[in-house]
Amino acid sequence: MRDDPDLVVTWATWREALSVVGMRRHVEATIRIALIVGTVLFAINHLDVVAAGEATASTWVKAAVTYLVPWVVSNLGILTATKRR
């Protein structure tokens, strides 16, 4: 699938959906969103524990999920916006 910024791409099957979210422009956008939103959420939820030097393995797993959630949500937004009707 071409990654032309002016190309409107839609999907109807899960194979096509994976192709849509795998497009370079979408990958870059979702990673950028995950980094920004994840960092804000990390600061709100975990920074005090990490700064105090009390982070455990559980803290770091939760921190990773903190970045994963906005990445998943932004991909779901792309899929919702591009689903062929």
Describe it.
With 85 residues, the protein is mainly α. It has one domain. Helices cover 72% and strands 0% of the residues. The protein has 4 helices and no strands. It has helices at residues 14-21, 24-45, 47-51, 57-82.
In round numbers, the mean pLDDT is: 95
Number of domains: 1
Radius of gyration: 16 Å
How is the main sheet built? none
Structural class: mainly alpha
Strands, count: 0
Q: Count the helices. How many?
A: 4
Give the fraction of residues assigned to helices.
Answer: over 70%
Terminal CA distance: 19 Å
Please report which band the strand proportion falls in: under 5%, 5-15%, 15-25%, 25-35%, 35-45% or over 45%: under 5%
The unreliable regions are none
Instruction: Report the principal-axis shape.
Output: elongated
Order of H and E elements: HHHH
